[in-house]
Design goal:
Helices cover 44% and strands 14% of the residues. By secondary structure, the chain is an alpha/beta fold. It folds into two domains: 2-194, Rossmann fold (3-Layer(aba) Sandwich); 196-433, Rossmann fold. The strands form two sheets. An eight-stranded mixed sheet has the order 3-2-1-4-5-6-7-8, sandwiched between helices. A six-stranded parallel sheet has the order 11-10-9-12-13-14. The mean pLDDT is 97. Bound molecules: uridine-5'-diphosphate-glucuronic acid.
């Protein structure tokens, strides 16, 4: 099929390349010239494992091209809207200006029978509003909402082999067009749910709200564990064996961040309030508060580990991204901890395999190094806040030779505390005795 993807960020760039990989003829459109030039040259402007490979192979087939001109989307049968919906300044609500601008930009270019497919995460009611506009301004086209569930770090796999497909549609024709687009996944037996706009929009935010709640639940347990001497990791293993609960997303630590979970639960709460159902989602404010408390807990542990003050103490912060296998530092708990410790007068040296450039753009006042050894050298305290493989694999004996003081805070509960203690380290985790 002929497909356009409007918005070439983490979501859109992967979607465009994956659709071309599946055999479609794709044009990716974005207003950011730098981004488009990089993608056209096969170099994604962000780190996503597997993306450079499919970008290169799809571009070589001639099925994938990029443009800054929305007019190049004309002639496509399907137009995916994949622009961002960040948190609006000064409120919890989502900022829909990019969705509206992309939609408006597309209107004059919609061919007869074209299908506009929203992928962006939006407040429930957005699709109905856009659908009504379409019926008015371009009745030859129709609208579907097809939320995306990809995880950064696994985006290529999640797009090519999704665990479910959700179509919010106004008519059966839209569903059959999407079936064509996703034929490979459907033939592979991927479950497909065809529903209305509102349900499709809600599925997306409900899924992220559930995941955020699961993480904050285990972090709340870790707070109680700290007060009682219990071990939250063993607790998570034990309750996780119950298939109704499941072990995944039960890792206590410095909490969730990124461009999705934090802003999505806030926007969901704001939308529920607009709908007069604020009480129904009031618990998500607690989920957010528990999550933000974890960052403070790590900072407090650092102060405690250094005898009451971090002032002029050298602290190695391992990780700045919101999770491993990503260069994304949006709302990153790790970067937040580094900034807070710096604010308290510590000499912080932050390191990360992929995230330094993005972190420096936001917080140029911090000291960064790409070398883990350099970050560790002479440190009075080590704070592990993103569980990159390299940090999980650190050897306590060897690391002990580099630092000035054998103190470590495991902000992701990934280290073997016994092995580190045996090597003479003072170790603290979150909710671990
Ligand atoms: C999340 C969802 O998992 C995706 O399904 C969704 O499509 C995406 O948001 C989106 O809305 O676009 P992502 O933001 O890539 O994906 O990251 P996650 O893997 O969900 O991790 C989010 C945060 O939770 C990270 O900071 C991670 O460190 C943290 N986390 C995760 C924990 O603290 N504990 C856990 O047990 C799991």
């Amino acid at each position: 099929m002929r497909i356009s993807v409007i918005g070439c960020g983490y979501l859109g760039a992967v979607h465009a390349a994956a659709m071309a990989e599946l055999g479609h003829q794709v044009v990716g459109v974005d207003v950011d010239e730098r981004k488009i030039a990089a993608l056209a040259a096969g170099h994604p402007p962000f780190f996503e494992p597997g993306l450079p490979e499919i970008l290169t192979s799809a571009t070589a087939t001639g099925r994938l091209r990029f443009s800054t001109d929305i007019a190049d989307a004309a002639g496509s049968e399907v137009h995916f809207l994949a622009v961002g919906t960040p948190q609006a300044a000064g409120t919890n609500a989502a900022d829909l200006r990019y969705v509206d601008a992309a939609f408006d930009g597309l209107l004059p270019h919609l061919a007869d029978g074209a299908l506009v497919v929203g992928k962006s995460t939006v407040p429930v009611g957005t699709a109905a509003r856009l659908g009504a506009r379409l019926a008015d301004a371009a009745p030859q086209a129709s609208l579907a909402w097809n939320p995306e569930f990809l995880r950064e770090g696994f985006a290529v796999k999640d797009t090519l082999e999704p665990d479910r497909l959700v179509y919010g549609v106004g008519d059966e024709h839209a569903a059959s067009v999407l079936d064509h687009v996703y034929r490979a996944a459907i033939e592979a037996g991927t479950p497909r749910i065809v529903t209305d706009y509102a349900t499709a929009e809600l599925v997306k935010v409900a899924a992220n709200a559930f995941l955020a709640t699961k993480i904050s639940f285990i972090n709340a347990m870790s707070e109680v564990a700290d007060a009682t001497g219990a071990d939250v990791t063993a607790l998570a293993d034990a309750i996780g064996h119950d298939a109704r609960i499941g072990r995944r997303f039960l890792n206590a630590g410095v909490g969730f961040g990124g461009g999705c979970l934090p802003k999505d639960i806030r926007a969901f709460t704001a939308r529920a309030e607009e709908l007069g159902r604020g009480d129904s989602l009031a618990f998500l404010k607690e989920v957010d508060a528990i999550n933000l408390r974890q960052r403070q807990r790590v900072v407090d542990l650092a102060v405690e580990a250094l005898g009451g003050s971090v002032f002029r103490k050298r602290i190695a912060v391992l990780g700045v991204t919101f999770k491993p296998d990503s260069d994304d530092v949006r709302d990153s708990p790790a970067l937040d901890v580094a900034v807070q410790l710096t604010g308290l007068g510590a000499d912080v040296v932050a390191t990360d395999p992929e995230g330094i450039e993005n972190a420096r753009a936001r917080h140029p006042q911090l000291d960064y190094t790409t070398s883990t050894r350099e970050a560790l050298s002479g440190a009075d305290l080590v704070v592990l806040v993103t569980e990159w493989r390299e940090y999980r694999a650190l050897d306590p004996v060897e690391t002990g030779r580099l630092v000035a003081g054998r103190r470590i805070i495991d902000g992701r509960n990934v280290l073997d505390l016994g092995a580190w203690r045996a090597a003479g380290w003072q170790v603290r985790g979150l909710g671990r005795p």
